[in-house]
Amino acid sequence: MINRVLIRTKVVQNLYSYMLTRPERTLSDALKDLNACMEKTYELYHYLLRLPVELTHIQEMRLDEARNKYMPTEEDLNPNMKFVNNRLVKALADNEQLAQFAQDHSVTWNDDPIFERLMLDKVLKSDIYNDYMADDEDSMTADALLWHQLMKQVILPDENMADAIEQRSLYWTEDDLDLVGQFVCKTFKRLAEGAEDPILPMFKDEEDSDFGKELFTASVQLMPESNTLIDGLLEESRWDKDRIVLMDRIIMCTGLAELRTFDKIPTAVTLNEYIELAKNFSTAASGKFVNGILNNAVKQLRQDGVIFKR
User: What are the contacts of 258-262 at 24+ separation with CB within 8 A?
Assistant: First the structure.
């Protein structure tokens, strides 16, 4: 689930924090924090997968209470059960891997009933929900599409969701919702298609598992050389190095470390990834600035015989 795009993001974020807190925090401390950050990201994935199950359960209890009230209406006695009988939700609830993770890590939203009520009300008031309930199609495909749309258009953008995750963990930010939400929706699709192992692993393989630690370590170790190279290029361009924001420098140093350390990753891939990081996490002009510096750095490193890959 945690792919290299997400790993790079976490490395840059943690490296920024590390640079602000040295020398109080050692490299070993920073690597432990990075590992904890990865684990918490995977935990967020499980929290988001758990949410449809718990919201559906609350709605089922509401319908049951309506049936048993003193003077139930015809609608109370014979409610539309399409939402609570959603096949995707049942597949999530019945998945043993999800259940075991939830038990081991206490993954539940039930400790925040106000959030659950607010989120369920927004779901039930959405056009997505109303269109689904009015549609005669009754299939796993339709059930999965409902939650894919609700997750992308109602749940993830909601300010209550951003507040809820930030209160649960210092490691979670609003940016994580968009990144992790993509994998949640991918999992919905895998469940709908009947994939043998629909729940995504924390890492695709051991190489990806080691990537973050190796990239972070290389970024720290090569930072003096990277900064020297960056400063030289800034002087050539007559740009005042004191005007560079710290995040831009962190992003460029991490990109240079990746260029020098990971021979199998094409240069163009590395450049594109860090230019996007600059656009997303720094200033409005950072993408263009980082693009120019990193491209000139690649030319210099090739000229000096430091890197040879294309």
Answer: 258/8, 258/215, 258/218, 259/297, 259/298, 259/301, 259/307, 260/218, 260/222, 260/301, 260/306, 260/307, 261/214, 261/215, 261/218, 261/222, 262/211, 262/214, 262/215
pLDDT of residue 242: 66
Mean of the per-residue pLDDT values for the chain? 94
Residue 199 backbone zone (phi > 0: left; psi -120 to 50: alpha; other: beta) = beta
- 215-257 pLDDT, tens digit per residue, is 999 999 999 999 999 999 998 876 666 668 899 999 999 999 9
252, 273 contact by CB (below 8 A):
no
The CATH number of domain 222-303, selected from 3.30.1490.190, 3.40.50.80, 3.40.50.970, 1.10.940.10: 1.10.940.10
Distance (Å) of CA 135 to CA 98, 120, 153, 191, 238: 30, 20, 19, 21, 63
Between 237 and 3, the more confident residue is 3
Whole-structure pTM value: 0.92
Q: What is the average per-residue pLDDT within 97-122? A: 97
Q: Nearest Cα to 18, choosing from 198, 223, 159?
A: 223
Q: Which residue has the tokens 């919201």?
A: 55
Q: Long-range contacts of range 80-83, CB-CB < 8 Å, 24 or more positions apart? A: 80/133, 82/132, 82/133, 82/138, 83/56, 83/59, 83/129, 83/132, 83/133
User: Which residue intervals of the chain bear CATH 1.10.940.10?
Assistant: 222-303
Q: What is the pLDDT of residues 169-200, one digit of tens each?
A: 989 988 889 899 999 999 999 999 999 999 99
Could you report how far apart the first and last alpha carbons of the chain are, in Å?
A: 28
